[in-house]
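User: Quick sanity check before I run a bigger batch. Here is a single chain. Can you write out its predicted 3D structure?
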Amino acid sequence: MATFSGVIVPMVTPFNRDENQSINYEAGEQLVEKLIAGGASGIFTFGSNGEFHVCTPDERIEFSKFVIEKVAGRVPVYVGTGACSTHDAVEMSKRAEAIGADALSVINPYFMGISDDQLKGYFETVAASVSIPVMLYNIPKSTGKNIPASVVAEVAQIDNVRGVKDSSGDMENLKSYIEASSSHDVDVIVGSDGKISAAHALGATGAIAGTGNLITEVVVNLWKALEAGDDAEAQRLQAEVEPIRDILHLGSTPQTLKRSLELAGYPVGPARFPVNEVADGIDEKIVAMLDHYGISHE
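Assistant: Done. Predicted structure follows.
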């Protein structure tokens, strides 16, 4: 049984439009219910779409605790705990385990170029600090370093390292992860929404799909069609992910995604500064996209 499977949604973190852009817990609960009703297999707090990089450790733990309480065991909740510093990643991971996280997503250190050996040591130390499952999170465009398959192969030998999320968009890279972890109980998950079908064909066990915040059912039904071997339906639904992806490319992550949710009636607020409100003319494009999906809007 896969630890990480199906469609896991990296939920956005809702903010108020107040001086501190404080977290909007009421909107968070509303979004949790939407994602569960839409059939999400899991919820992931404080990934890239959750803006972990602009939230304090206390905010990340307190809001994750709230999400865990509201989900109440209906689906697993995964918490992003990676950091530049091994010490900070360990502290966050221990705190996330203590509040009841089902598993952790651990991004590799960013900004500084560390060696493969240092990267391996980082993952080993973080994994050893907790007893719950750990998923490595590869997003080289943001971290400046692609986690090599050789590191995945070594770290996969650790008992509670149970997954790798690959957001590189490179199917050869994802394939190398599947091969590197094939002799261990490690799931490989795709993080590129436009490549879900391609990743499934290679043996990925699921997708962490940011688009699932808005079009939850589309992505969930895409995965169901892939699992059922319904190629025609899968092809149709994979293409159906593109209209929202076109919108996401019009701003910084998760600027236009959050605005799309707002216009669809989920008051998740803006992205945090330094990311601004969406530019003039974007709302009209978002409304056209919502119309395409038959999503009512304000």
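The domain at 6-230 is CATH 3.20.20.70 (TIM Barrel).

User: Great, the batch can go ahead then.
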